[in-house]
């Protein structure tokens, strides 16, 4: 294509020794010719203050200048005083002292957009164009198909003086290659450079001696230019023009040929001369001889990638290096005039370079050599005065740095390769892989890929849409560098890519570099330099993006012992502070080859977030007149970071997301707090501006804040805190209450002053917490937390693993609760009592009162968050704190909300607050109280109509709220309301107040067995559901009821309701529950047990009749029925005592307790009222107990044992001097006989019954080793005591067996009982037969009488029996009947 300067350094001026040099002015510039256009110099557009070229952005707006083609029309710039903290508009870019706009910057480089751009290019940004930068003259050149445009690119004007040339031979087709051109060093007649343009397809060359001739462009006779057409071109194209002044120019053709060109003759007059250079040609015989030689030669150079010119050592001589894409490298020495052009060195480097890359980097051994391509190269010199010629002369070889690539699939791998050209060989040195960019070369790109070395330690690689900044620094003393050198690798150091966005349809169409100081040039060259660069830079022309400078601002840092690396934080910082600028052409998304591990991005994001909070970032000034603007800019930066992380899809862990959100919350909260503080300070009169926040900042310990330095002018402590210490906002909020406490404790302030400070404390706490919770709710999705369950800004679940949250840290929770209590106490004391001594002002009281609901709201939010977080921590101590706080908060919020309604006259606020946080019991209380109050007012006799109407409206509104709560909260609200109504005893309201919500009442009552006595009434009277009523009553009676009489009624009614329900059917005249036989059987058993207990109570009621209370009844019962034999059996004694207590208290006893009572009681008199029934009742209770078979058998053995132990078998066994009748009567008086008799009479020994007359041997050992299931839950020691008593009981029983033949007597007693039962049964049978015969005779007599009456009257249905049979039984058991 064409070169900016023919080399990577500025070229020398073209002057001959025969031409008289013009005298230089004091500033080094050449005197201007008369009537000539003023030349631009270094001072033309410099601002009066002489600001440095690269410096930090001053936040003031650059004055807007009218765009003109000539600087004479530009108004004189006035110096503008920079005002600190001036607000920068959205999208406004930071500007530098040279007028450029900084697009991005970091510790190593800065990318800025230069202001100077011709209006023509700005208006037609999409046209096809390319160009170059000439830093030696300070001009930029852009070529289109029809025009050449030259302008000073480094001036400070947005519309610089522009030189536009209409090309005399424009391209015929839009698809033709763009014209090639180059600026030419200034001639003796003009201080401005010239311009040469070559048409690639036709070979037509046009030369203007000075760009100033563009002013007379339309006057063809005055045009100061010459033309020439390159002869001999047949199908080939010119692909590059190289400025190799002062030796001339070089042209490269698509065929691989090269040609020498000059534009001045030996006398310095404009004259174009071109001839082809051949490989071994040392001289030329003129242009036609050169052409003939070219046509006869077939030795072309191949597909040329680049031509570069070395530094100038002698005027008129340059070293030229040519490289082909396949790796052929040639070195030529050329001289002015095109004579003695010699090829010094030629080598094929492809194979050697690829082998060296694979040897140094084994990971790339799979890449094919066929994909190798040499893209560009640059002279690699160690100093600014070193030249290629001097190195070759010294036989040290010519060092080059090559830009090469190896391609696989859709990726290209780029390498910087050091080579040294010797006359007999090519040596491959160190290799630097480029790891941050792998996008393949765009073959249709307007400009070729370029490599620039403005400094030995730095390289720039310019692609079509990206610029790589690469460090080449080597520390020879570093062990790592020595190791890398042995491996022929550059040390791993800084490498970054400046990627241009694809969204704006922009492209790099030209480039050039700037060196910070001139190389080996003459004085004239030094004088001609328009722009003196401060840093090594590369300038790129971006179609659609303007002129950009990439300047390495800290090359020394690249050469340090610890060279910098591209970090995630640096890339993130650039994206945040520069990526939001409007029309910024840089793409800040991480390049695919520059992606960082997610954990690095997380750490970088957190670190940058904290830097913004602490104002440690250089991109936001920390000294500002408006703190609010500073806070908003920092908030905007945090928001931009969140958007960037969301857009790029970086995978952040959950904790990082929350921490970033919390940091942003603090900024939002601080902004609200500052606005409140600023307004408060503005309202206060002079001398009274000191307030809570001032005191608070001073109270905070030095370890938790940044102390201002008075010597540095940091005098405002509050502003300093907002600028530097927002990250510790959670430590400042608790001090709002502490300041009040210390102030009041010192006795310096009264209640009126405390109220004033409290008002400011409320502003601080409410502003911070409300701002934080609102921000969290609105921005959670932005931080990737859209799936978190938030309510009122509080996370509902998922606290596990999260660190302590700043809005609910321990100290904040404690102090905000105390602040609420203090505000409540003061309001309770003074609200409505403005005339009380020491009362605060009514205005202040009103403000604090109106803020109080919000303060309670924030207190509840903070406490809830603390409780939930603490509950999910693994530390048991923290969990215990959560339980304590939950109990405290429940009571506190109830009291505070009720106080709002009752004492502060804010029921609506109380209702709203309770609804917001679903404090439903409190809400029910407030609403119920309000409804009752207004209902009572409405029912007053003397109420006026207007008040009555307002009461009706209020009651209706409250009832609507109640109904709305049913819809909103459902069963939770119903539970709170119904429990309150039950608690205060308004049962009628419970059943009738809200009939449309009856379904909730039904569900509430059915779900709570404790309200069963209400539930069954509701089921019968409201739901007409007998089944549920039966279930409720039966469950209550069977499982919950303790009172014997209530239990009997509940089971009876429940049984009746069950029989009346639709789930029962009649089969053979018997009502049988469908699937509920077991329930009905259990109910019958329980009723039988109740009957047994009632029988027992009736039998002892006479003994306790005269007792005055339950204790007296128990004493009487103990005295009459106490078992003195249990004195040595304490466990049995306790069981008896428990049973007696239940009996006199009418507590329903389970079967085993009742059995113990019956089996252990002893009647202390000779009557056998209890004695004849107690063991039979015990056995019957066992049968109805519902125990399993094994348990029943175990306890039956115990009952029979206690029954047999009730009599003295030793006395019974001693029958000496007794007759048979006396012995039989003695047996008939035993408990065993009476029990056998009762069991036989009541069919307890039937085959279906488990009860049987057990023999003593079968009874022996019961409960001595196994107590069964009854005592399973008791302590081991208690169970051992019970078992000990059972063993003692069993020992006494065994003695009767062993010594008194109890087993034999048992058999005799059983036989006697059976005989007696048989005799009685036979007698009853005979008596029954007599009664049956008598009834038959009676029926016949009645029938006879009826027939007679029927015959007489004819109405037999009116007949009545005339006689009635009465049966009597004599003392002997005989029946006697009479009518």
Automatic annotation (TrEMBL):
GO terms under cellular component: nuclear pore outer ring
Protein's UniProt keywords contain Transport: yes
Keywords linked to the UniProt accession: Coiled coil, mRNA transport, Nucleus, Protein transport, Translocation, Transport
GO biological process, one term: protein import into nucleus
InterPro entries reported for this sequence: Nucleoporin_Nup133/Nup155_C, Nucleoporin_Nup133/Nup155_N, Nup133-like, WD40/YVTN_repeat-like_dom_sf
Sequence ranges assigned to domain Nucleoporin Nup133/Nup155-like N-terminal in this UniProt record: 104-548
Localization in the cell: Nucleus envelope
Coiled coil: 1321-1351
Name used for this protein in its record: Non-repetitive/WGA-negative nucleoporin C-terminal-domain-containing protein
Keyword Coiled coil: yes
Pfam family name, one: Nucleoporin_C
Residue span of region Disordered: 1-73
Family: Belongs to the nucleoporin Nup133 family.
GO-annotated molecular function: structural constituent of nuclear pore
Origin: domain of life: Eukaryota
All copies of domain Nucleoporin Nup133/Nup155-like C-terminal, residue ranges: 660-1307
Positions with biased composition (Polar residues): 1-15
